[in-house]
Queue: 3 jobs
Job 1
Amino acid sequence: MARVRERRWPRGALAGVCAGLAVLSGCRSPVPFYADGHRPDAPVFGLGGPMPYVEPDDAATARPDVSGGRTGGLAEASRALGRIAPVYGWTRPGMLSAAVRGLPARIWVTNTARRAVELIDPETLQVVRRLRVGNVPREIVPSWDLRTLWISDGGGTLVPMDARTGRRGAPVAVASPHDLYFTPDGRTALVMTGTLRRIDFRDPRTMRLHYALRVPCDGVGHADFSATGDYVIATCERSGQVVRVDPRRRTVTGVLLLHRRAAPKDVRLSPDGTVFYVSDPVAEGVWVIDAERFGKLGFIRTGPGAGGLTPSRDGTILYVSGRGTISLIDFAARRVVGRWRLPNAGSTGMGGVSADGKVLWLPGRSPDLVYAISTETGRPVHAIRAGTGAVGLCVFPQPGRYSLGHTGNFR
């Protein structure tokens, strides 16, 4: 794992040491966790002490065990180079599951005014179908087996839709569903019930409640699993915390305060399984969390409204949607390497990448547009008038063996 140094280095001192000893020692300068000219020791929110430097080592590019079995920890798993696929090793272009082969590509977008979900054809860039939901739709979540799309709504229900036919199933009463996830083994559905301060463990097909776990934080909303699936971390937007849960034992195993004024939102695991990235629109950036030790490593400043997190199809870049911009974080370097601007765009929500990786799809909340952005140029290919107050967008199908939920977290 990365080694944290708390002290500050004199300007240029470390670079000079590295230059002089590079041949002998392979020294590398620390990677600052602030971008765009911000000093690496600049405090978040203007409060507290300096954020630490993080010096990368060989473990930063290692690939951990994702076989699902228990190991001696990520550090040990990281040393098994060349034998184990990375976290997103099954989500590359063309790696579609047999469950979705032959299914036409569609962009599913919520329309709160019409209480419906609209389907966009990415080839014609037109809305080709509108599916009635009943209540106000919020999130669109692919099921673990990729055969159903679950629509959460403001009326306290989850509505199943057949991914192939679009036929609506019977709504299931679920208390305060903010987002929906599935354990990597497909045996359990996890419903994040933010207003009730709990995570509901449910049957992944019927959504029958098995167990309600109270969590010691407020506003639990989004989550992601470790590389081995042994635990899940969830963001608590209202209390500035991140909570860690053992899904097998159904217990809370850790709580981490990011900052008393933080508002953590989305979360994604790095391709090597060593860190979690947590977006924070209030702090205007992304927190970096040590996956093994469950502690803060640093912070990457991206810009206002940092919200949705989407890995690129090749697993090298993390797209961070913001207010009128998309920031590109290099997974290996852990820093911002680019920024795309959306002209005349307000806030953008959580989206997804096309199956071939060439287009990033994002919902716009003001105005009510859906943006298709080229991942090669960073320019909008098209802006489609679809949805009203769109908060949910799902690109489906996508490569992957199964879905962990959310707007499309596949592995």
Job 2
Amino acid sequence: MTEGKALLLQAKVTNKDLDTFESKLLNLCQQYFLDPLNSDLLIPSRLKDIVKKYEEKQSLSKFEEVYIHEYMLRSLSGFLPDFQKKIRNKVELERVAEEKIRQEKLRQEAIEKQKLLESDPVYIAKQKEKALLKKYDINEYLSGALPTELSEILNKLENETRLSQDEAVWLNTIGKKFFSTKVRHKFHRLEANYYLQEYAKNTKNIWNAINASSQLRKCQESPEAEEFLEKISTNGIKDKKLLSAYFTTLGGVRRDLRKVKVAIDNASKAHNLTPDNYRPCTLLGAIYMETYQYTLGHEWYEKASERGATNQSINADLKSIISKMDKAKRNEMIEHLLKLDPHAYSWLKSLKTAVVNKPTSKQNKVEQSVKAQKKASPSQPKNSEKSLQNLLEQGAKAHNLKQPVNLSKSSCMKPKKK
């Protein structure tokens, strides 16, 4: 019995289980090993004699006691492993059941804790704040402690409320790192909506229409701006400044939409109305640069500078234009501008180096690819190129500028003699 207990103790069975085991074991011994009538085992004749003596309550000799003891041990060893396995299985099932109860208790506690959190105003505000940061692509970990101004601004944007002037200034200065693309888009959309509403109240105030269109451009809604401006009648308007602003804005919208011909026509009208205003000049400079007429673009930017445009705004324009070009055209434009005015365009050298320092073999591949595309593309026939060339020449002639060179030779232009 001692060996059986040791085996069971290895399975960490309780005392109660051991008592039950002993009781059942004794019953089994009585039934299967000491009662040959109920036993399915092959009982040796020697054992039968011993059992008979036992039933008749006769004393057993020492030999008989040892014999039956050894026989019982050998027989018990046949079913003890199975019995032990059953006990272990029982213990494991109880452990699993207890673990399920424990896990369920923890789950219920977590649910209760979450309910308490969700009813906490501070927690609610924090979760809302995180959701807004994610929506407007602002990294909460990079932003550190969230400024009060940003929290108020995001709530206003979410509620479709226009920002105050102070808030707009904060976004463009102190909070510039939070002025993400999505925040910028929503800001300009709300500005556009405000001016559209103001114009609807008084359609005679064209300035509101111009401001609305300018804001629509900034939130990538140029098609909407063009449709809106085209509905406005300029007949009877005698204010040249207002007309110039209208045509400059419309020209900018059409520049966004790649409607080069009408964009140049609008910008030219604006310039003729207000020759001393730099804005139409800046617009024409940008259009000509984008159509690879670098000398004309440079001349119009010079005119804009003479009329008050800052070098910072002109350079920002050029940087934006260059960033949208493929490598070959970008390099071509940078080289041409450096020849026209090495001092004014010296800041372009770093961009030129970034392009030119590529391995020669790769640069040749790019040039060959560009040539192959030009040769194979059916969308750029010679007639189209000539048409654009004629248009640009007309524009230059109208404003007493130098004749633009042929488009196909733009990279070989000589700098303007001053």
Job 3
Amino acid sequence: MANALTGLNAVSRAADVVSSNVANAMTEGYGRRDIELSSHQVGRTGSGVAVDGVSRYYDPVTTGERRIADGDVALEDVRAEFYDTFTKAMGQPDEADSVAGRITGLETALIEAASRPDSEARLTTVLDAATELTSQIKTAADSLKDIRMDADKQIGKAVDFLQSSLQQVVDLNVAIQKQVSQGYDPNALMDQRQTLVDQISEIIPVKEIQKNNGMISLYTSGGAVLVDSKAATIEFTATPTISPDMTVENGALSGLTINGQLVSTDTEKGAIAGGKLAGLFEVRDKLVPDAQVQLDALARDLIERFETTDADPTLGIGAAGLFTDGGSALDPLVEEGLSSRISVNALVNPDQGGDLWKIRDGLGAISEGDQGDATILNSLADALQKTRIASSGSLTSIERSALGFASDIYSLGKTNQLKAEADLTFATARQESLHSIELENGVDTDNEMQKLLVIEQAYGANAKVIQTIQALMDQLMGI
């Protein structure tokens, strides 16, 4: 009777484990359960079956690799999104409303005005084309500013979530340790903790170290301790408004500290290498500033092309040409943010008190000249088409026209975008492959159903033993 009762208890627990596995077959973070049984011994005599506990399947190697892949996907996704946004802001060179398209529009307007220098309508078209070009450059610069500020904001949110999640891991560690020491089943809490660590790994890829009584420690791939006996203190201060000159180095932007120590945010070798957080820091501190340098270099190139006496012989020494730095001549020492300040010279804009004819006769002209003279208009068109080496930026190896410069900036961004998307595709494929391996080692419903059949048979057999004993007892009592 005692043997049969222990058998019923064992199969009852086994049925509970199987039902839990089947119910959670699609649950993320759920570890497959297996019941652990052993022969029960009383003295020298076997006494049924003992339920030793319920084990939770966990493959630390595969899960660790998958978590690194999760971080890689998040990192490449941040990069690809940045390049996609920037190239859209620049626009494809063959689109009329792109930066390159606006340069082509200005070039066309100058050539058409040169064919009819007496036409006020064509001079107006030149002014409109120049204004649209500066507006498009400013729009691209504003896009970079918005991207940088959004990255800074997302860093703040990610750090807040990270700090909260690390504390939850510590709390679950304590709860699991208590469950283990008291002999209770801690597997449900371990499932919760695994899901939490998976979420952390998207922000910062972590390595999990098993400790006594079911507890764990978390370390970044760069060696920083996130969870040990307590959670690390991670701090970051978001900046509401960011300008191009603001950096971590000059103290205008916040870096990341772990337990009060400023850490490197390099995506390859930093303390938080790989993952969304490192990607956001890369966007804020490297990708956007690099793109800003290129855009500022383009704005400077445009200003310089029209600030020479070759383009406009009437210009005085130090006078601004068709394009200005916020209304003034270019100051090469203050190039940061130039793409946000570039504007058309007010001297040619009637709405700002200027004279439209100065486009044809020169910005330094005192009075209107021969309406049929297209010399300066041709010089302005030549200045735009002339190939020259840019004074700044990274594209200073070869001579380019203004259109070629803008097109090459777009091409460089597009090349980086395609590379980031290719890296994202590779990282995603690796992530999916590792996730599939995890699922293969997870709950197999077909196998669980087979176990359920065995459980049903075992339950019936133990019940039959008890039923037989009952019948024998009834017979004995009837004698």
